[in-house]
């Protein structure tokens, strides 16, 4: 991992279903529930993520406990999972940073940064370049739904010149 003095700047924007659609799904209980269940006392926001676990894999639920980060945040590496989707559901109501990039011939294009509203989770579609789990406050605990299997499901890309994610001024 080489040291560089040049840094490129990213400014995060609020996460919405529309601006995140090319990369995955926003998991949120917004709008009216799709149906009422449990004697009408529970709203069900049905089927909010396109989960994909590939051939030879199965869905797994894990708990991640990540250390909080702060802005400005130095982005040196992104990763992707070619064998399946990966969903992050916060077990708190604190915003977290979400970084994604389109694929540009096997490497990430210019990253985009989003900040959740604290009540949103996300599901990265299969093979989407993304930053690591980046809570902005404690606790950094998340339920993670992803592929469990015997084949490799992680590719990393280290940027030659890192990016810095800064708050809007």
Question: How would you characterize the overall build of this protein?
Answer:
By secondary structure, this protein is mainly beta. The protein has a single domain (8-165), classed as Ureidoglycolate hydrolase (Jelly Rolls, Sandwich), CATH 2.60.120. The chain has one helix at residues 17-20, and strands at residues 8-10, 13-14, 24-27, 35-37, 42-44, 58-65, 73-80, 86-90, 96-101, 112-115, 121-124, 129-130, 134-135, 141-148, 155-165. Strands 2, 9, 10, 12 and 13 form a five-stranded mixed sheet that branches. A five-stranded antiparallel sheet has the order 3-11-8-14-6, with no helix packed on it. The longest helix has 4 residues, at 17-20. 30% of the residues are buried.
Helices and strands, with pairings:
Layout (H helix, E strand, L loop, with lengths): L7 E3 L2 E2 L2 H4 L3 E4 L7 E3 L4 E3 L13 E8 L7 E8 L5 E5 L5 E6 L10 E4 L5 E4 L4 E2 L3 E2 L5 E8 L6 E11 L4
Parallel strand pairs: 1-15, 2-10
Antiparallel strand pairs: 3-11, 4-5, 6-14, 7-15, 8-11, 8-14, 9-10, 9-12, 9-13
């Amino acid at each position: 991992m080489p040291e560089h003095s040049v840094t490129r700047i990213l400014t995060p924007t609020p996460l919405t279903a529309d601006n995140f659609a090319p990369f995955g799904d926003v998991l949120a209980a917004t709008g009216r529930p799709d149906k009422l269940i449990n004697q009408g006392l529970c709203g069900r926001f049905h089927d909010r993520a396109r989960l994909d676990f590939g051939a030879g894999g199965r869905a797994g639920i894990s708990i991640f406990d990540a250390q909080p980060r702060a802005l400005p945040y130095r982005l040196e590496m992104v990763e992707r999972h070619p064998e399946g989707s990966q969903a992050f559901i916060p077990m708190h109501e604190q915003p977290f940073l979400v970084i994604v990039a389109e694929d540009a011939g096997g490497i990430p294009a210019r990253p985009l940064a989003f900040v959740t509203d604290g009540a949103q989770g996300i599901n990265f579609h299969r093979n989407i370049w993304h930053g690591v789990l980046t809570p902005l406050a404690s606790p950094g605990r998340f339920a993670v739904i992803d592929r469990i299997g015997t084949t490799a499901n992680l590719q990393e890309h280290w940027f030659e010149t890192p990016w810095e994610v800064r708050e809007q001024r």
